[in-house]
Automatic annotation (TrEMBL):
Protein name: Methyltransferase type 11 domain-containing protein
Domain Methyltransferase type: 66-169
A single GO molecular function term of this UniProt record: S-adenosylmethionine-dependent methyltransferase activity
InterPro entries in the cross-refs: Methyltransf_11 (IPR013216), SAM-dependent_MTases_sf (IPR029063)
PANTHER family (UniProt xref): 2-METHOXY-6-POLYPRENYL-1,4-BENZOQUINOL METHYLASE, MITOCHONDRIAL, METHYLTRANSFERASE
Residue ranges that the Swiss-Prot or TrEMBL entry lists as coiled coil: none
Length: 304
């Protein structure tokens, strides 16, 4: 009798404590190395919300904005810097990581002082249990956060809960992997070097982590948004270039990330080998005189 095939293992999802620890450790490197590229998407999210359009200003109503998963403060700084000089605008930024909260406070501090006097509050909290009363915010912004939380559907329900009627929310997640070489090239280079370094011992016994691309399909994500209670939802893909002008620069910047450092284990020989493999894989894109980057899925939703 042949043995029955085993069902595939469900991917492991990082819990809140693991996420907090990971992003605390990665906070400064993220702000310096990766966040500059994500700010391109942040500006698209801000524009889609039309926060400062004339029709909004003419209503003479107070506008309270929430940034969920504020990271190193790049998106929050963009939002606050574009807010009119008016007491009618207020921004609350939130992150699970205390270190990210600290970085956002430091980054936005200048905008709270003269001559700007922006109203900015930065707090620690979970996207799945937002520490705010119902219908607090006129707009919600979240850049590259939904695909990271353990329960994305719960986060969407929480956004709907804290959003006022007539309010809008915009968020982004990783797009399709086949259109995201800045992410997939790094993964391929690390897999290749794991074989070379014999660093895969025991990997077959490890439960793989949930892919950050798990929300990349447009229509299923729209359905989840509508199931969370939103009345309307638009979704589209766009390209986000990585801020590197050569394959070597791309490789050098990625060498600062925790995954790269963990694989090379402090060995200069391994560092150079992984650096060269990564550069070689990225070179194909740069040889076309095109930037390397990734695809982003943007979702704009409204509550009636």
């Amino acid at each position: 009798m042949q043995p029955q095939p085993q069902p595939p293992q469900q991917p492991r999802i990082l819990n809140h404590d693991e996420l907090k620890s990971k992003w605390d450790a990665f906070s400064k490197t993220f702000q310096q190395v990766l966040e500059p590229s994500t700010n391109i998407t942040a500006q698209s999210l801000i524009s889609s919300l039309a926060l400062y359009a004339n029709n909004e200003c003419s209503r003479h109503q107070k506008i309270h904005i929430l940034d969920i998963g504020c990271g190193g403060g790049g998106g929050s700084f963009l939002i606050a810097s574009q807010m009119p000089n008016s007491d009618d605008y207020e921004l609350t930024s939130m992150d699970l990581s205390p270190e990210m909260v600290k970085l956002t406070r430091e980054r936005c501090q200048i905008l709270t002082q003269a001559p700007f006097h922006r109203k900015i509050h930065v707090v620690e909290g979970s996207a799945e249990n937002l520490p705010f009363p119902d219908e607090t915010f006129d707009a919600v912004f979240s850049n590259y956060c939904l695909h990271l939380v353990p329960n994305p559907d719960q986060m969407l329900k929480e956004i709907h809960r804290v959003l006022k009627k007539g309010g809008k929310a915009s968020l982004s997640v990783w797009g399709r992997p086949e259109n995201s070489p800045s992410f997939t090239v790094m993964q391929k280079a690390m897999m290749e070097c794991k074989k070379r370094f014999n660093s895969h011992d025991g990997d077959e016994n490890l439960v793989p982590l949930r892919s950050p691309f798990h929300l990349h399909q447009k229509d299923p994500l729209r359905e989840r948004v509508l199931n969370a209670g939103f009345s309307k939802c638009l979704a589209w893909y766009q390209f986000q270039p990585f801020h590197a002008f050569s394959a070597r620069e791309f490789a050098e910047l990625n060498s600062l990330t925790p995954d790269f450092r963990a694989l090379v284990e402090g060995s200069e020989e391994k560092r150079l080998e992984l650096l060269n493999v990564l550069e070689g894989m990225a070179k194909e894109t740069f040889d076309k005189n095109e930037p390397i980057g990734n695809e982003v899925l943007i979702v704009l939703m409204s509550k009636e």
